[in-house]
């Protein structure tokens, strides 16, 4: 792996801007003001976040110079969406192309289908679809009997949406049918599904159950169950929080925590083998909950949001964090996402705010770029069949990533030892 330009960045070096929700003073700090989800559009031109109390704010990116942190204002490009329910998940649809726009104009269902869409998952299980350009609702998707927690558009350029719910199911929706066709329902989890992620080649989907501690892989070609990923139960009792595929689809990261610390496991989704783990057992009891993990667009780093720190950045295989913010127990982190072009991470907090952080940039080695390009279209089994030296095989299958255990002598500092 390549090294970062800086050994570690502090919060004062990395914080770009904090946008604060314009909650009425009577609602400030009360349940329902949390930012449960943040997302950038696939072209990086829009950003959306749940500011609490059923409100989603959509702003154009990059942010304007006069944005000083209070949302929203009267700028005509911004949209304030009133969903009427607590919003737990959101996701931008694929960015429409000119060719697709021409095809959609000739389509029978709706000439406005070429517009950029935003899906929002509500507390009552309804998924509301919005037109980003106008800020108007388009239609609702109904079927979930619990909170629609995580929403992901399959990255195939089509309007196919995956949703996970506290009703223990995953659903796959064809948005061109506007909710008038039954969705594909995937069952198998025994309790809440806290997160789901789709592989970049659109062949697989991963889901994690918060309380049943199950990591499941599903086929998106046949809509069937593939396997459980086993080997993460190093604790008597723990909870699963998040998952994410690497940009080349060759790694799956899952995040879990217990009373004595949190950890991230890296898996080979093709074989089900656990490749490496990052373990942090230095936190105080009850303050070590991990909320979200996300791969950077180049696949070199993982963004980590925990209850006691707004953001940490880990370079795969490196013992210490390349960036971590100061401890902040008053504004717990809940979610994060990278800008699709890299360089910036957005994090959402329990008080309904969102922060933008400048993250360390690395220049990927040519070997990493070659591996990522190869693995985007070649499975582990196909790599293993190649007549290549064992050392190269280990590199191509990410078998060279060692286990890492974070060591911090003093949790009150913002730098690891």
Structure commentary:
- With 417 residues, the chain is mainly β.
- The chain has a single domain, classed as YVTN repeat-like/Quinoprotein amine dehydrogenase (Methylamine Dehydrogenase, Chain H), CATH 2.130.10.10.
- The chain is 8% helix and 38% strand.
- The chain has five helices and 29 strands.
- It has helices at 11-14, 98-106, 366-375, 380-384, 390-396; strands at 15-19, 38-40, 46-52, 55-60, 79-82, 87-92, 117-122, 127-131, 136-141, 148-153, 160-165, 169-174, 184-187, 193-198, 204-209, 215-219, 224-228, 239-245, 252-258, 261-268, 273-280, 290-295, 301-306, 312-315, 323-324, 333-338, 344-349, 354-358, 404-405.
- Strand 7 (117-122) and strand 8 form a beta hairpin.
- The longest helix is centred in the C-terminal third of the chain and has 10 residues, at 366-375.
- Mean pLDDT is 85; it is low at 1-12, 101-112 and 409-417.
Which features characterize this protein?
four-stranded antiparallel β-sheet, disordered C terminus, 29 strands, Methylamine Dehydrogenase, Chain H, 417 residues, single chain, mainly beta
